[in-house]
């Protein structure tokens, strides 16, 4: 696996993602990342579509 930084604007959501997060959960995740940081990189395919 190769880790590299790309612009957030270039990342595309996976259209068939079955998971939906309510606004309250997104806010919890946001607060956690702001407080503790994020050490889990996003996995994308060759088209910059999120796969994990």
Explain how this protein is built.
The protein has 52 residues and is mainly α. 27% of the residues lie in helices and 0% in strands. It is built from one helix and no strands. The chain has one helix spanning 23-36. The two termini are 13 Å apart. The model has no long low-confidence stretch (mean pLDDT 89).
Rounded mean pLDDT is: 89
Q: What is the string of helix and strand elements?
A: H
Helix segment tally: 1
- Hey, roughly how much beta strand do the residues contain? under 5%
How many DSSP E strands?
Answer: 0
Total domain modules: 1
Shape: globular
What order do the helices and strands come in, and which of them pair?
Blueprint: H1 23-36
Short description:
The chain is mainly α. It contains one helix and no strands.
What are the defining features of this structure?
single chain; 52 residues; mainly alpha; 1 helix
């Amino acid at each position: 696996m190769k880790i590299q930084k790309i612009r957030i604007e270039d990342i595309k959501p996976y259209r068939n993602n079955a998971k939906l997060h309510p606004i309250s959960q997104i806010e919890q995740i946001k607060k956690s990342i702001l407080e503790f940081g994020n050490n889990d990189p996003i996995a994308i395919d060759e088209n910059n579509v999120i796969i994990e």
